[in-house]
Specification:
2 copies of one chain form a homodimer.
Chain A: H1 8-12, E1 27-28, H2 40-51, H3 66-78, E2 87-90, H4 93-104, E3 110-115, H5 119-127, E4 131-136, E5 138-139, E6 144-145, H6 148-154, E7 159-165, H7 177-190, E8 193-197, H8 218-221, E9 224-228, E10 242-246, H9 249-258, H10 269-281, H11 283-307, E11 321-325, H12 336-344, E12 346-347, E13 349-350, E14 361-365, H13 370-388
Parallel strand pairs in A: 1-12, 3-4, 3-7, 7-8, 8-9
Antiparallel strand pairs in A: 2-10, 5-6, 9-10, 11-14, 13-14
Helix pairs in contact in A: 2-10, 3-10, 4-5, 4-9, 11-13, 12-13
C-alpha cells in the first residue's frame, strides 16, 4: 500500500462528511476530498503548532503568510506572478465566489457559467438573486469543450460576471490557451469580471497543463479574480483556508467597497500553517499521489470501456473526478445517483446538481486507494449486471 | 507554577501576534488573549483529530456540533435556553458584528454604542458607512455605569441597532439586571435590534454574574442577536470559531435575507472540535484559571492604590483587562500607551482606540503568570519613578 493511503478502518472512523453522510455499508465516492492523509511537512507544521498550544491570534510574517506562499508557488509551478498585496485570504472558496457575485453585479444581473459546473456556482448565483446565463460545454467526441459562439450569446447586455472553473469540475478539463483567450476576449468585449476558480490546478495529468487566467495578458488578467487554495491538491478542506487574488488595484478597490475585509472572517492558524507548508514543501508528496490518481483515472476509463461501454465518459485531464453520462443505460429510479446508491451501495455525486443537462450523469471521485476503487467499480458492475439479468 | 502557565521562553517562541508585534525586550499586555495553554480536553480533541489526519469537510453531528455545545453550556451556566436552530456558526466575532450592522441598518443610519468600547465595534460602524451614536458610560466613583438618559437621547430617529459588549471590554463591568433591562426597554421603545457580544461571559469574578441578554424576557430577547465564542475563556482565538444566536425566527430571516449563509465562511474542523470540547469539558480548567486571574486582578488594583494612586482604576468585575485612566499623571509623549511602551517596554492597549474619552487611558491585559505580571508592574513603576525623579 502506498504510504499516503489510509486503511479503510481508519477511513470509517473519520468524522468528516464524506464517510459519515451515508450508511456504513455504502462506499463514498462523492464529495471532492481524497481518502489519503496529508504531506509530512503539512502534518509537521500542524503538530508543531499543536505541541506549543500556540492558538493565539495569528501573527504570521513574511514567508509564513499564505500570500507569499501562494505567490511563490504560482511563480514556480505556472510562471505566474500574483501580486501578494492584492491577495485576500479567505476561509472558503464558496464564500469567495458569492462575495465576488455580490461585489461585481447587482440583483437581476446575469452571471455567465459553463455547465455542467460545481453546484455552488449555480447556488451562489441563485442565492444572490442574480440570473444564470448558462453556456453548456460541448462534447466534441473526445472531451467537453468551450462553445465560444454560445459564450458570446450567453454574455448579453445584462451580464456582469463570468464564473470559470479551470481545471474544470466535473469534466476534468484543463482548458487550453485558445479556450482561455476566447473567454478572455469575450470578457473584454462585454466588460465582464472573470472569476477563475483554479482550485484543482495541482491535479493535472501528464500531457496537459494548468494555465492560470492571470497569465493570459494584462487586459484579461486585470479583470480576473483568481480563487485558489491548497485544499484539493493537499487534502485539507476542513482546515478552511484559501485566497482570492485580484488582477488589478481597481478590481480590488471595487471589491473592498462592496465587501468589507472583516466581513469574510478569514482562516485560522492551523489552516494558514498547513496551507503554507503544503504550497512550500508538499510537492514531492503530491507527485506520488498523482501516480496513484493517474492509475485510478485510467482504471475508471478502462472499466467503462470494458464493462459499461454504454456510459459516455472522457478520461479527465485533471482532477480526481470522473464524469459519467449514464443516459444510454436507461437506469430505473429517480436518477443514476440514486440507482447506484440503492443498488450498488456506492455514493456518487448527482449530476443534476451540476446544472441542466447533468441529470443523467454521476460524478465519481476516484481519489482513493486502488483497493477501494476496485470495490466501487465491482459494486457498480454488479448492480448493472443484475439490471440486465 | 500553575500547570496552565507557560514559561516565558515558550511564550517568546510563540508565532501569534501578541508576542511578535513588538521588539523582544517588550512585555506584551495588549491583545486580549492569555499567556496560558488550553484545557486538557481541548488539547486532547485537537490531538485526536491531528493524529487521524482527519482534515476533510466537517461532518459533525449531534453533541459534536457547536450549536448543541453552546446551547448546553448557556443552559447549564446561565439558565438560558438558546435555540440551536437559530444559531449561525462563524469564524470570527468581528465578522459577526459587521454582518449584523449590514443586515439590520442602512448606510447613514445610526448605530448606538457605549464608550469606551472594543475598537472593532467603532471600526465596523465606520467601515459600513453607518454613524456612531455614542453614549459614554459614566464613572460613578466605583465603576463605569450605563447612562440610561444618555442612551435614550443617543438612540434617536435614525438609530436601528444597539451594540452591547457585556461583560464589557475594556471596563470589565458585568452589567446588572437593571442596566440590561434599561437597555432592553430603550431598544423596544425605539425598535432597535440589540447585538450583544457576550464573549467574556466565562470570565466573571466572585460577587458578580453574567446575565445573557437572552434571559431578559421575550420582548427583549426576540430582538437580540447574541454573539459568543469559547475563544476568550478558553484561550483559542487563533482557531476561529464562534456563534451568532438570533432571538427569533423573524430576526434570523431578516439576517439571512441580507447576508447569505455561505458568505460567512464559517469555522474549520479544528476550531469546531476545540470549541465543543471547551464548552463541554473545559470548566474545571477555567475554575483554576479564574483563581489566578482573580489574584492578578487584585494585584493590579493594589499596585494602583499603593504605587500609582494618580491612576484612576476600578477593579474589573469580569475579564482579564484593567482599564487605567492615566490622565492625572500628565505623562509626556503622544499617549500613555506610547509612554509605557517607550519608557517601560510594556505594550498596553491604547485607550484612544476605544473611542472618544479614552485617549488618556491604557488597557492592561493581566491574563498572564504572576511572575510576568510582577515584571510588567515593576517596569511601569520604574518608568513612573524616573519621570518624577
Amino acid at each position: 500500500m502506498e504510504p499516503f493511503v489510509l486503511p479503510i478502518e481508519t477511513l470509517r472512523r473519520r468524522r468528516g462528511i464524506k464517510w459519515r453522510r451515508y450508511a456504513d455499508d455504502v462506499l463514498p465516492a462523492w464529495v471532492a476530498e481524497m481518502d489519503f492523509g496529508v504531506p509530512d511537512p503539512v502534518q509537521r507544521a500542524i503538530v508543531e503548532l499543536v505541541e506549543q498550544q500556540d492558538y493565539g491570534y495569528a501573527g504570521r510574517e513574511g514567508a509564513e503568510c499564505v500570500e507569499a506562499a501562494f505567490a511563490g508557488r504560482m511563480r514556480e509551478r505556472f510562471g505566474w506572478e500574483p501580486d501578494p498585496s492584492r491577495i485576500q485570504p479567505v476561509a472558503d472558496l464558496v464564500q469567495a465566489i458569492l462575495a465576488t457575485i455580490l461585489a461585481f453585479s447587482q440583483p437581476g444581473d446575469d452571471v455567465v457559467v459553463q455547465t455542467p459546473v460545481y453546484p455552488p456556482f449555480l447556488g451562489s448565483i441563485d442565492e444572490a438573486g442574480r440570473r444564470r446565463a448558462v453556456n453548456p460545454l460541448l462534447d466534441d467526441g473526445a472531451r467537453l469543450v468551450l462553445d465560444v459562439d454560445g459564450l458570446r450569446s450567453a454574455a448579453g447586455d445584462r451580464a456582469r460576471l463570468l464564473l470559470l472553473c479551470n481545471p474544470h469540475n466535473p469534466s476534468g478539463r484543463a482548458l487550453e490557451r485558445e479556450e482561455l483567450l476566447a473567454i478572455g476576449r469575450v470578457a473584454v468585449e462585454r466588460d465582464l469580471v472573470i472569476v477563475s476558480d483554479e482550485i484543482h490546478c495541482d491535479l493535472v495529468y501528464p500531457g496537459h497543463r494548468h494555465l492560470p487566467m492571470g497569465t493570459m495578458g494584462e487586459e484579461i488578467a486585470s479583470r480576473t479574480v483568481t480563487i485558489n487554495s491548497a485544499t484539493k491538491g493537499f487534502n485539507i478542506p476542513g482546515l478552511r483556508c484559501g485566497v482570492m487574488h485580484f488582477g488589478s488595484d481597481e478590481l480590488l478597490d471595487r471589491f473592498r467597497q462592496a465587501v468589507p475585509d472583516r466581513l469574510l472572517g478569514g482562516p485560522g492558524v492551523v489552516g494558514i500553517d498547513a496551507t503554507v507548508a503544503a504550497w512550500r514543501w508538499g510537492q514531492p508528496w503530491l507527485d506520488d499521489v498523482m501516480v496513484r490518481l493517474l492509475a485510478n483515472r485510467d482504471r475508471v476509463a478502462a472499466w467503462v470501456a470494458e464493462q459499461a461501454p454504454a456510459i459516455r465518459h472522457h478520461a479527465p485531464e485533471a482532477t480526481y473526478l470522473a464524469w459519467l453520462d449514464c443516459g444510454a443505460l436507461r437506469l430505473p429510479g429517480a436518477s443514476p445517483q440514486e440507482f447506484f446508491l440503492e443498488e450498488a451501495r456506492v455514493a456518487l455525486g448527482a449530476g443534476g446538481d451540476f446544472g441542466p443537462g447533468g441529470e443523467a450523469c454521476v460524478r465519481l471521485n476516484f481519489g482513493t486507494s486502488a483497493r477501494i476503487l476496485e470495490e466501487i467499480l465491482e459494486r457498480m458492475d454488479g448492480a448493472l449486471r443484475r439490471l440486465s439479468a
